[in-house]
Structures are given as C-alpha cells and as structure tokens.
Design brief:
Number of domains of chain A: 1
Oligomer: homotetramer
CATH architecture of chain A: Roll
Strand content of chain A: 35-45%
Largest interface: A-D, 21 and 21 residues
Order of helices and strands of chain A: EHHEEEEEH
C-alpha cells in the first residue's frame, strides 16, 4: 500500500492564541498518517519497535497554505514517494472540503536500539511495489 | 531541599485559541518544577531513570484561579509536602507579579523498568528532612 | 445527553521517554471527550465560542491507575455529573479492553470574551435532564 | 539584531517513547528563538499581536542530525537570513557542547486579524540592517 487517507478532528489543545492549529502540530498529524498507512498495509509499527527497529525523521519540510481551525475535520493523504534500503520518503497533503491546506514531505531512516543505522526491513521495501 | 522556585516564560505553542495557557500545560510546568527541585537538592532525575527507577504520577489535581497568557513570565514554587517509602507528595503554586494564579498537588510512586512498585530511594526520603 | 463514549488511538508524539502516554495528555483527551459529548447532544462548542461564551476549567483532578502505551486503542467515557448556572461538572473514565485505566473529574465555569463570569447557557443547563 | 542565542533545557513531556526529543518539538523551540531574538532587538511580539499584526509560518524545513534527550541543555542560535516587505526568513542551529544537532529554516508572512496579507512592519524590515 502506497497511499492512505485518514480524517482528523482538530483538538482545542492543538490550537494557539491566533486561533489556528499550531504549525508544530502538523508534524504530529503526519506521523499519525504514517502509522495508519503502515497499519493499512498490514504492518504494525509498535511491534517493529518492540523488535528493535525504529524509524527516525532525518528531514522534514512543510508548506502552509491556508490556516486550520479548532474542530475542523480535515483529511490527511499520506503517500510513500520512494523507498530504498537507506531511506523512506513520504509526501503529505491536508485537505478540508477538497481545498488543499498544506503539503509536506519527510525522509526517514532506520536505526536499532543503540541508534546504529540499519537497512529498511523487507516489509517496508516492498510497500512501494504494491 | 524541600522548596524551590523557577521562572517560566509562556511559549506561543502552549497557548490555545482562547488566548491563554492551555490547562494541560500546567502539568508540564509542574514536572519541570519537580525536576529542578530535585536538581537543586543535588539529585539527577535522568540518572535515576538510567539506574532503573522511575517516578510515576499516581494522582494530580489543579485549581486554576486566573488565566495565564502568551509571553507571561511566571514563577513556579514547588514544595515537597510529604514523603514516605510508598509515595512522594508535592504542592505547586504559580505566581505572576505576586498574584497567585494556580495551586496544585501531585502524588508520585516509584517503579522499576518493568513497572513493579519500588520503595522511594533514600535520597528522596531524606529530601524531606532538609 | 449526559454520557458519551469515544475511542482514541494513542499517538507517538503523546508518549514520553518512559514509553507511556504522558500524564498531561490525559487532560487533552478529556477535553476531546467534552467536545464530543456536547456534539452528540446537538451542541457545537466552536459556535458557542464564536457567539462569545467560553467554558474554562476551574478545577481538575485525575487518578492514574495503569499506564497507557503508544498505539493503544482506548475508550473514554465522559459523563455530566452536575450542572448549575455557576458550574458544569464532568467525570471521565478511561478503559482498554474493559480495564479501568484512569478516572478524573473537572469543574468548568462560563466566561465571556473579556473573562467576566457568565451563567451557563440554557442548552447546557438542560443537558443534565436528558 | 540579526542573531541571538538562547539555552533550552529539554523537558520530560517533550520526549517520546524512543527516549528522544520529539521532532515536532523542534519547531516549538524555533518559535521561542524567534520571540527572544525579537525581544533582544527591542521588539515585543505580544504587543505586535495586540496591535493587530501576526507573523504566520508559510514554510519550514528541518534536518535532524543527532538525537536530543531529556534534560539535555541545548543552545539554539536563531539568525535572520533575509527580510523583505513580503517575508521574513530565519535560520536555526541547535548545539549541545559545540556539536551541531539540527539545522532549520522558516519563512514567515505578516497578516492582520482577518488573515489578510500585510507588509512587514518597519521595525522588522530594519532588523536586518543592524
């Protein structure tokens, strides 16, 4: 599975004094998008960590087009853009009623419990073929 | 050391759409107060965790008297109220320019890495005598 | 409507170095529970704020019984305990597979945009009768 | 003033189950860096908002080089890279004991209370000349 959509309801605690979803919270949503894309493809990220492999964010970037408010019901589309033994790249798009609110990308690496870089597990390498 | 004061500058990301410090963030501040009280008494909570003992919150309660805004510089006074082998009780008071903004309490227990309840280490038991 | 249940999936960003849901995050969940109870009863808290009335937390208290982990799917039951023109009291219970993980209460007051105390609107006063 | 450094102590609530500062929290720190750079140059961002002008993040990007742990004392260097009537660009560098842990950039725009794009106020335009 290469693409997955979820709906997220913006919580009050995620807004700021400007009345909008704080920009740092977008990255929390993107992480939820990755987890659910992984789950939808039959993966279990919690189990992967219990087995000693961790995905860590090496780089991320976001463009904020239109503000998001408390209680908005938004759609997050998460897409695997590229995967190699060294890294996993995602793209994110946030929509409200069809309007594109933000786009983002991230690059993840894989490490073991001690922080040593590891190859992406086969399960993830194959996810780009489906 | 039984009591310690620190100053905290309220961050934009900690406010909510009402323009005030979100009530859940007070508990983050209280935790910082505990860490700094511990450090001021010669303790090192990070080292305590590395050695396999963890303080966990069993109960907490807060009364919010006056709202706190972005960029407010507030004073947090943290006091050890009681300590026994089974639990550690703190009191918290938040002030701005001498005005009391909130009061709170918490009760912590001590557990090991597997979550089993442990006796409070001597260092903590003695902190109430100083 | 006096009681409502929702399911919440614990996000990675909500855990802490101990591996558990951070205790401050429970209060974020309780707020979501209040919003959804309000919505289920036909209310719209965002609209209430746009109309100039705000519910503010005057007091809250939580007992943590069992830790909650990343990716746990938990059930939050939110109940209106009491409502009067001056205050609105809720009770919260968190479950995972039927096990009670935490209980909490909160007391809310109602204020206008300038922070002046207001009577609870009729809609909220009537919610306790249903 | 074009560059400013502050020290930040990593809070327990900012870490995640991996034991590291969660990547979304870096953006909270960068915002604190902007506020303090602004203050060090004689500005007052809270007052600017009270006067009806808001700085909003249009784009941000971060590269994470080395993980950051609970209780680490880190240095954040915030630099104004470019400023024009349309946008304000910052660069961020995070250090621990001289080691570079992360680099980031952001682009801010200026809006009024209704979200309409405004020219950067003179105070900010002049900050790049100092």
């Amino acid at each position: 599975m290469k693409q997955h959509e979820i709906e997220i309801r913006v919580r009050y605690a995620e807004t700021d004094a400007m009345g909008f979803l704080h920009h740092s919270r977008y990255f929390v949503y993107f992480e939820v998008g990755r987890t659910e894309l992984f789950r939808a493809g039959g993966g279990d990220y919690r189990k992967m960590e219990e087995d000693g492999l961790f995905l860590v964010v090496a780089k991320t970037e976001c463009r904020f087009k239109s503000p998001i408010r408390y209680d908005d019901l938004i759609t997050l589309r998460t897409t695997i853009e590229r995967v190699s033994p060294a890294k996993l790249e995602h793209k994110y798009e946030l929509f409200r009623d069809g309007e594109l609110l933000a786009t983002a990308t991230s690059t993840l690496g894989c490490v073991d419990r001690s922080g040593q870089i590891q190859m992406m597990p086969d399960f993830i390498l194959q996810s780009a073929d489906e």
